[in-house]
Amino acid sequence: MTEVATSLDLGADLLSVRRIGPWLSELLDGLPAAEAGALHGRLELAVHEVCVNIVEHAGVADGDVLGLRGDVTLDAVTVRVTGPGMPIDPALIPEPRPSEPQIRGYGLMIVRRLVDRLECRADGGRAVWMLRVDRDGKGTGR
Amino acid sequence: MTGVATDTGAAAGGEGTDLRIEITADEPGAAVLRLAGRLDALQAPELDARFRELVPLGRVRLLVDLSAVGFVDSAGLAVLVRARRTTREHGGDVVLIRPRSPEGQRVFRLTQFDQVFRMLDESPR
């Protein structure tokens, strides 16, 4: 059962992606401060990395929009990001070796480490990313 | 070259803080870059440009002060990793002063680059 749900449409560009942090603050506003702070830190970076990945690699066109929807339940906080591009299976993307100093490829690895569940599926010709963080009452900082 | 400050990028309508870069280069072969704000995909190219200016001048021992950086993403990390590689190819290195905020430190911890870079808690005297 959803306790709180909010949505936000972002321009598909790097400047607009900066609106994620303030939007998450609103979404998490009703949670205990310590939990909200920990969840905000994890989700801001994870959602930011997904959105930047879409902006830089999904072949966005002028006027394209990223749709964000956040749901807070007793068990979890879930953010869905809908944007242009084909869905990919995050599990099939190879990870760089931690600590090995290669230059690129860390975005999805970072997302995987921040969320408890990550999926991507197709919906009407767009890709929908689902990022879920389980609630343990503390936000379990990562 | 001393005290070159660059306030990069357009304002984000109050949603985030732009990256400020201040470069001090008093010692031959070295430079200190003091950063403040967000080191994200929007601003990382500006820092990359500063590195690309310094290295051809022989300034390959770089101290990058991230203590006032409140957010680092994978693009910001990539610029630092590239600078580390380039300076080391020329006999130098990139040493970091650790971000004070947990949000600034998170990317380094998750990727274990906090064990790759030499990271200081504060600027050496």
From TrEMBL, chain A:
What are the GO MF terms of this UniProt record? protein serine/threonine kinase activity
Keywords recorded for this protein, A-Z? Kinase, Serine/threonine-protein kinase, Transferase
Pfam families hit by this protein: HATPase_c_2
UniProt domain Histidine kinase/HSP90-like ATPase: residue ranges: 13-130
Q: Which CDD domains match?
A: HATPase_RsbW-like
Its signal peptide is: none
**Which PANTHER family does the UniProt record give?**
ANTI-SIGMA-F FACTOR RSBW (PTHR35526:SF3), ANTI-SIGMA-F FACTOR RSBW-RELATED (PTHR35526)
- According to UniProt, the name of this protein is Histidine kinase/HSP90-like ATPase domain-containing protein
| Organism per entry | Nakamurella endophytica
Organism taxonomic ancestry = Bacteria, Bacillati, Actinomycetota, Actinomycetes, Nakamurellales
TrEMBL record, chain B:
One of the record's GO molecular function terms: anti-sigma factor antagonist activity
InterPro entries reported in the protein's UniProt record: Anti-sigma_ant (IPR003658), MlaB-like_STAS (IPR058548), STAS_dom (IPR002645), STAS_dom_sf (IPR036513)
Coiled-coil boundaries: none
Q: Which Pfam families match?
A: STAS_2
What the entry lists under PROSITE patterns is as follows: STAS
Where in this chain does the record put each STAS domain?
A: 28-125
CDD domains listed in its UniProt record = STAS_anti-anti-sigma_factors
Which family is this sequence assigned to? Belongs to the anti-sigma-factor antagonist family.
Q: What is this protein called?
A: Anti-sigma factor antagonist
